Amino acid sequence: MTALRVQGLRSGYGKVPILAGVDLLVAGGEVVAVVGPNGSGKSTLLKTICGLIRPYSGQILFDGRDMAGRPSYHIARAGISYVPEGGRLFPNMTVRENLLMGAFATPANLKSGLLEEIYTLFPILQRRGRQYAATLSGGEKQMLAISRGLVSSPKILMLDEPSLGIAPKLVEEIYDRLHALKAKGLTVLLVEQNTNFALELADRAYVLENGRIVLEGSGQDVAANPEIKRHFLGL
Ligand SMILES: Nc1ncnc2c1ncn2[C@@H]1O[C@H](COP(=O)(O)OP(=O)(O)OP(=O)(O)O)[C@@H](O)[C@H]1O
Ligand SMILES: [Mg+2]
Asked: Domains in the chain, please, with CATH?
C-alpha cells in the first residue's frame, strides 16, 4: 500500500525555484530518508508536502488524494504530521502542554492513553512534564518535538533533521527510539544531513541535489555508493 506518492513536484520561494521536479514514494510502514548537502532543498520538500509552501506544479498523492495546494491544517488532519527543523516548540508552555497541543484533535478519552505511549517511548518527558519547554536540553527538546508529532497518531511522520545540534549520545538515543517506532510499523519520511544514522534506519533512501533526486536505492546501497560518499556526503 502506498501512503505517499510525490510526482513532478516543483516549488520554491516566490519566483526562486528550489525543487525542480521531485518524484518519491513512501509505502505504508516504510521508513524513507532523503539525504543531500546543505541547501539542496530537503527542508523545502517537507514544507511543500505539509502545505507550508504552495507547489508550482506536481502532485502530492496521499492515500490516493492529491494534497498539492491544500492548506496545511487540511493536510495535517489527513494524517501527515510534520516535525520542523529545530522542533518549533511552545517555549513558555510545559512539556505536557506541548504534548497536548499536538493532540488537540484527539478525542479527550483517548488523550491519556496516547500520553502514556509517549512516556513509555521517552520516559524523560514524563519526569520533565511540568517543566517549561524552553528549559529542556537540546536532546530533550527534540524528543518532545518528535513526541508532539506522534500524539496526533499520524499515518506518516515527517521529520526534518532530528539529529541537528544534538550531542552524539542523544542522537543515538533518538535513533534507537526511531528504530522502535519503525518496528511498530510507523511510516516515516525523514530528511537528514547526518547520513550514517538516517541511512541505517531507512528502508529506502533518496539523494537530493540542487532540487533534484540524483540517486535512489536501499539505505544500504546509498550509504555504500562511492560517488555519493565523495561528492555529496563529504565522507
Ligand atoms: N524562506 C526562504 N526564502 C528564500 N529562499 C529560501 C528560503 N528558505 C530556504 N531558501 C533557499 O532554498 C534553498 C534550499 O533550502 P532548504 O532549506 O530546503 O535546504 P536544505 O537541504 O534543507 O538545507 P540544510 O541541509 O542546510 O537544512 C537554499 O538555497 C535556501 O537558501
Ligand atoms: Mg534543512
From this structure: 1-79+155-167+185-235 (3.40.50.300), 87-153 (no CATH)
